[in-house]
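Worked example 3 (structure in, sequence out).
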């Protein structure tokens, strides 16, 4: 879901801009670019930790660490920044412009399944905020099952829900480790979404059956 169907990075950036505005309004000064770089490094470490362990670090801890690093008050003020970030992130999260048209092209021909990693409460809130649920035959927020991609059991569960063979499945995702490698080994068709043009040029074309710019390219892969 994130970075495949919805602009998670854009909502994260909007939340961070709101945090910087709140810091300035409170009369504090931080070096903007260094603050953003440090925030993004924290977020990457949190994502990597989740993929390795299945445990998410609370967002509030990220902002407490940033407050300490940039000599800001780190008790109630860190909580205030966290609340600002979360409120704006969910208020601004949107599907990519091409998402709905692609899903509407696919849904009459194929049953669609949404499969997403992340804390259950976060992912269900994103699904509700973006209104994507009606496009799918079933939603798999895999944390509901105590699992996370790329656990083989996730893909077995989705294939069983589809009621088809592995070689009749197609997965579309942006993370090759979480979304592509295991399904491809199982015999699924795979489409790796790489939105950034420079990254797409560097992407290993042999890692997936197709490397695409966005989900807008997927109907064409299926002859639609």
């Amino acid at each position: 879901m994130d970075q495949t169907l919805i602009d998670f990075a854009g909502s994260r950036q909007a939340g961070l801009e709101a945090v910087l505005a709140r810091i300035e309004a409170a009369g504090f000064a931080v070096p903007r670019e260094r603050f953003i770089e440090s925030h993004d490094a924290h977020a990457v470490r949190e994502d990597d930790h989740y993929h390795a362990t299945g445990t998410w670090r609370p967002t509030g801890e990220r902002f407490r660490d940033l407050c300490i690093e940039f000599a800001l008050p780190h008790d109630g003020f860190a909580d205030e920044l966290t609340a600002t970030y979360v409120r704006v992130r969910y208020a601004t999260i949107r599907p990519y412009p091409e998402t709905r048209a692609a899903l509407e092209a696919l849904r009459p021909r194929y049953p669609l399944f949404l499969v997403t990693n992340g804390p259950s409460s976060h992912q269900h809130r994103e699904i509700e905020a973006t209104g994507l649920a009606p496009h799918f035959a079933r939603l798999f927020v895999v944390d509901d099952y105590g699992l996370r991609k790329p656990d083989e059991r996730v893909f077995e569960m989705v294939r069983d829900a589809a009621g088809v063979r592995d070689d009749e499945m197609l997965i579309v995702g942006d993370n090759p480790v979480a979304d592509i490698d295991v399904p491809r080994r199982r015999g699924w068709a795979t489409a790796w979404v790489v939105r950034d043009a420079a990254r797409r040029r560097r992407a290993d074309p042999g890692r997936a059956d197709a490397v695409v710019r966005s989900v807008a390219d997927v109907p064409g892969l299926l002859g639609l």
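Notes: Residues 8-92 form one domain. Residues 182 and 212 are 19 Å apart (CA to CA).
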